[in-house]
Amino acid sequence: MTNVTQNIVIKYPREATIFASVCAILFCIVGVVGNLVTVVALIRCPKLRTHATTAFVLSLCISDLLFCSVNLPLTASRYIHEAWTLGDALCKLFPVLFYGNVAVSLLNMVAITLNRYVLISYHQYYNQLYSKVSIWLQLLCTWGFAFLIMLPSLLGVWGQLGLNPSTFSCTILEKDGKSPKKILFLIAFVLPCVVIISSYSCIFWRVQKSRRKLKAHQQATKKEKRNNRRERDDSRLTKLMLIIFICFVLCFLPLMLVNVFDDDVKYPVLHVLASILAWASSVINPFIYAASNRQYRSAYSKLFRIVKSSVVFSESKQFSNNSPNSRHKNGQSVNYKPNPGSS
After folding, report:
1. Beta carbons of 102 and 220 less than 8 angstroms apart
2. Computed over its alpha carbons, how large is the radius of gyration of the chain?
3. What letter does residue 292 receive in the DSSP assignment?
4. How far is CA 65 from the centre of its chain?
5. For residues 26 and 57, is the Cβ–Cβ distance under 8 A?
6. What is d(CA 283, CA 211) in angstroms, rounded to the nearest whole number?
7. How confident is the model over 128-176, as pLDDT tens digits?
8. What's the pTM value of the predicted model, to 2 decimals?
């Protein structure tokens, strides 16, 4: 056993690393299944597919799916071996995917929040601002910016990506005494959170104003009733997205704080617990969709009904093919009976 390994064992209790590896494996399985089901359900639902918000929700699901299918298996291996055993190339790729995915998730939430704000506050401009071309451009900018901010560290221009032997983690390291960690934390986490909180505050103020106006006019026309119904649906979806954001912040904020303010890892168990909480953010969204919104529940149930009917049909077809009558029918031979009049 090397000195590095001894230091690692002392720094991270084995119970903590085993617990972390088990959580990573469980989250990997649940996250891949949950996010994949969500993607398929939303794509197959015509009503939700036409919403601009759905495009950003799908982008968020794909980001979580990427995290669960790539980052979490690598993380599980790291905690199982208490060392990085997967080579230098993957060690440099790992933080790009990790921090890039965090940025993608937050920027998608910014896009969703601004979408909700425009829909509720400036509905007359909504169709112009959220055409198909505009949505694709926003998604392209979201993903492009999220991963481009990691480019200086990847190229070694500002900090560097590599292995921190004392924590057996592949992360952003100092280079020439400089590290972009705090600036990235500010740009990719704090600023998006400020934008989202400000937007939701404006949405809340607008909704309250609309409700007061509605109470002032008790008698409403049919057109107004339809508009009120649409506003209620929009309000429910906005509340769902607010819940998603709050859960994301609660999951990721502890990890961001310990990475920035406890870079020397004086409290290793806190780092492990904060990491596990951060992983959970890529798993919980499908459950929030199902629990909090009727339209999303409907999309899930339609998909499950299709899958169930396909399984039942497949089993019934297989049963009919294996039944005795079917085997007799398929295996029967034609007996030639000669004509009595022929010789």
Report:
1. no
2. 27
3. H
4. 6
5. no
6. 35
7. 899 999 999 999 999 999 999 999 999 988 889 999 888 888 988 888 8
8. 0.80
